[in-house]
Amino acid sequence: MQDLVDELHERFAPLDDGAPSDSLPELAGVDPDRFGISVVDADGERFEAGDVASGFSLQSASKPFVYGIALERCGAGRVRERVSVEPTGEPFNAIGKLDEEGRPFNALVNTGAIAVADFVHADGEDDLPARKALLEERLGRYFGRRPAVDEAVLGSAREREHRNRAIAHLLRDHDRLHDPVEDTLELYFHQCALVVSTQDLANAGLTLACGGRNPLTAVRALPVEHVPALLSLMLSCGMYDRSGEWAYEVGLPAKSGVGGGIVAVVPGRMGIGVFSPRIDFQGNSVRGMRVIEALSERLKLHTFAVRA
Question: Which InterPro entries does the entry mention (predicted)?
Answer without folding.
Answer: Beta-lactam/transpept-like, Glutaminase
